[in-house]
Amino acid sequence: MLANPIDMETFENVVHKWFSESIEADAIWAQQSAPRPSYPYGVLNIISGPITASPFWERKFSTDLDREAGKEILAEIGVPCTMVVSCQAHVVAADGRDPARYSRTLVSRAQARLQLISVQNDFRVAKISVQRAEPVTVISGIVNDGNVSRSGIDVRFNAMLKLDEYLGYIKTTKIVSTDVGIDKTFGDV
User: Where exactly are the structural domains of the chain?
Assistant: First the structure.
């Protein structure tokens, strides 16, 4: 099985944990086929990325001659990238006089919690960081004859794309040229 350049499961889990804890409600990923939770709830969607920070990937090589033949060289490639996640809160707006129940309040709380050391530590352990959170947008509307308070933010996360492979090396080579008069073996004989 081929390796993945980014651990999407870990990425999605830590983002989900932050957002669902921030809005104090269930959150789902937009591409899930699971039923929508009861109000209030959150919806997460990776809307862009990974976007590489550079067209040039870093290459590193290390050699260990004690590895099995054909796998003595570890070749690693990597490049920083960003992922943009749309984070929305959906709340039934039963009482318009209670701003604490607005989706805007929940999303603002999630936005502010991005700065908490405990949240940043969770991201650090997952090897991601927050580049920036866009302003909160309100996208409320009528759903099934009822007013639904809906707000969202797009958050740009930093991550790293990485892959590695093991390679062998040419231990010995022989050059023969009658024109130049060479018949020599080079390398470890």
Answer: 8-187
